[in-house]
Write a structure and sequence with these properties.
This protein has 224 residues and is mainly α. The chain contains eleven helices and three strands. It has two domains: 2-142, Ribonuclease III domain (Ribonuclease iii, N-terminal Endonuclease Domain, Chain A, Orthogonal Bundle); 149-215, Double Stranded RNA Binding Domain (2-Layer Sandwich). Helices cover 57% and strands 11% of the residues. Strands 1-2-3 form a three-stranded antiparallel beta sheet. Helix 4 (37-58) crosses helix 8 (105-123), helix 6 (76-85) packs across helix 8 (105-123) and helix 10 (149-160) crosses helix 11. It is globular and about 50 Å long.
């Protein structure tokens, strides 16, 4: 762990936070220790805020384009790209079965978010912002071409009428360290437009949006 923290030039205070950030639920279950799920929850919000602030300060586009770019920068595929730049998967603590299979993209993205959650708790916002500048900003050009189905669906709907879409996790199956999620994308909170599954909630939501886009040709004024 110290090797990674030194590589990131983090003047950390509590090393245990970063150990927990890289502890997958499978390892935590086998070793009766804490996993990274709560830090992932926090880190997700921290990364979204840092990305929003960065794009806002750059003033590169209007709100719609900024929203699209933020979604591209924080999606699972992008987080894996950023994680690869610091060899994050080499530091993950996985259960025996997961070690044999190797970490999947969802595990890597979750750990990357958890790392930011740990940095925020340990060092505060400004130092975490420096981490963002160091390991995300230099590689943002690699994520602008990522297909973001959620943003595409939002644009498609709003081009026809000002209706709202939302995402709901409607099913979770499997053990805590190996869950499969099923998400539904809904129009005005009650009309299901698409269904998707994935190894993470984000992946399931993206696949639900993709499913809705594949169906396409909605007349939103006629849907009641």
């Amino acid at each position: 762990m110290k090797d990674l923290l030194n590589k990131l030039n983090l003047l950390y205070k509590d090393e245990s936070l970063y150990v927990r950030a890289l502890t997958h639920a499978s390892y935590a279950y086998e070793n009766q220790t804490e996993n990274n799920e709560k830090l992932e929850f926090l880190g997700d919000a921290v990364i979204e805020l840092l990305t929003s602030d960065y794009l806002y300060q750059k003033d590169l586009a209007d709100e719609g384009e900024l929203t699209k770019r933020r979604a591209q920068a924080v999606c699972e595929e992008a987080l894996v790209i950023f994680a690869e730049k610091i060899d994050l998967k080499d530091y993950l603590l996985l259960g025996k079965g997961e070690q044999l299979r190797g970490p999947n993209p969802s595990m890597i993205a979750d750990a990357f978010e958890s790392l930011f959650g740990a940095a925020y708790l340990d060092l505060g916002f400004r130092q975490t912002q420096k981490l963002f500048q160091k390991i995300m900003v230099p590689h943002l050009n690699l994520v602008w071409d990522i297909k973001d189905y959620k943003s595409a669906l939002q644009e498609y709907i709003q081009s026809g009428d000002k209706r709202n879409i939302s995402y709901q996790i409607i099913k979770e199956v499997g053990p805590s360290h190996k869950k499969i999620f099923e998400a539904a994308v809904k129009l005005d909170n009650h009309i299901t437009l698409g269904i998707g599954t994935g190894k993470s909630k984000k992946e399931a939501e993206q696949n639900a949006a993709h499913d809705a886009l594949k169906k396409g040709n909605y007349d939103f004024k006629e849907i009641v």
